[in-house]
Amino acid sequence: MSALADLLARGRAQRVHSGAAWSVGDASGPLERGWTGTRSWDGPPLDGTDVWDLASVTKPLAGLAVMALVERGTLGLDDTVGARLPHYRGGDKADLTVRHLLTHTSGIPGRVPLYREHPTRAALLEAVRLLPLTARPGTRVQYSSQGFIILGLIAEAASGEPLDALVERLVSAPLGLRDTGFAPDAARRARAVATEDCPWRGRVVVGEVHDENAVVLGAPAAHAGLFSTLEDMERIGASLAAGGHGLLHPDTFTLMTAPHTDGLGSRRALAWQGRDPVGSPAGEVFGPDSFGHTGFTGTSLWVDPAAGRYAVLLTNRVHPSRAGDAIAAERREFHDLAARAGS
Fold first, then answer.
1. Which of 11, 26, 80, 342 lies 20 to 30 A from 217 at CA?
2. CA 101 – CA 98 distance, rounded (Å)
3. 3-class secondary structure per residue, 131-197
């Protein structure tokens, strides 16, 4: 058993997750891949075709579609929220830019459970519009799913297409992804890995977005809601390890993945996390220019451009409960082992 397989088997034994799938590779594809465990604690074994809720790994994948719009001149990084969304004019978010939203420097607070008091799409979107800023734009990084909800609306308004169609056209189709998208159909739901036994919904969530704000929105959103498989994530990882091959021009990709927030509290690129010197989910071995993103459900995609290497980790660490943070240490160890795999 490889070190990665052993680590993730131990994670199941310690009930960090019921199942995990992983891949480490380069531009040519996987160097090591595998899966262990079951789709739920009382469910069938993983078989490698399993469908995973990516949670916030949605953000950079939607971000790739946004950057493709920027590359085509359909959208500008310095376009303002008010210019693209007329109903935001006159409010405190009117002058925020696409760049602010992509780098989490908008000042819009994140991790706000709006779904609890705003149970319809219209009410929740209005609550997002009215959320008071808690920092002056451009002065600090403050992770904001609400900012990405607005970003998705801007992308739709600029392109005239719904977000799911944008991601399909600009990300999935160029890479030949077969199982990556929002709202899985019945066949994909039958392969889905269970997430939380959700108190709000009163049932175990399977094949339906875990994020409650996304549930209330009821349509694709840029902050959460994409599902994918190990094979599709490998295709994405290989493209990113090759400098965004098939997705973006090299200059656009370099701009997207370069640090934009040094000195503002944590390192962010455009829609991607950068590698912070201390406490990075990428561990200690991935290079200083590496970038990636994690997801609340226990997912991760990380790329080291200097090494030409990607690492994909898919787990259901919220099953059956989101309580506990053992995934944090496991994820760091995973990335350290992934950085050394095959060497």
1. 80
2. 5
3. CCCCCCCCCCCCCCHHHHHHHHHHHHHHHCCCHHHHHHHHHHHHHCCCCCEECCCHHHHCCECEEEE
Tell me the CA distances in angstroms from 238 to 79, 241, 245, one per residue in order: 31, 5, 8
The identity of residue 83, as a single letter, is A
Distance, in Å, from the CA atom of 273 to the CA atom of 301, rounded to the nearest integer, reads 10
| Dihedral pair phi/psi, residue 220, rounded to 5° | -55, 140
DSSP-derived letter for residue 208 is S
Topology adopted by domain 3-340: Beta-lactamase (3.40.710)
Rounded distance, CA 72 to CA 61, Å?
17
- Per residue in 88-123, pLDDT (tens digit) is 999 999 999 999 999 999 999 998 899 999 999 999
Residues with Cβ within 8 Å of 90's Cβ and at least 6 positions away in sequence, in order, are: 82
Beta-carbon contacts of residue 265 (< 8 Å; ≥ 6 apart): 140, 141
Q: Is the pTM of this model over 0.90?
A: yes
Q: Which tens digits make up the pLDDT trace of 272-329?
A: 999 999 999 999 999 999 999 999 999 999 999 999 999 999 999 999 999 999 999 9
- In the chain, what are the domain boundaries? 3-340
Report the Cα 12 to chain-centroid distance in Å: 23
CA–CA distance, 64 with 61 (Å, rounded to integer): 5
- What stretch of H or E contains 217? helix 212-217
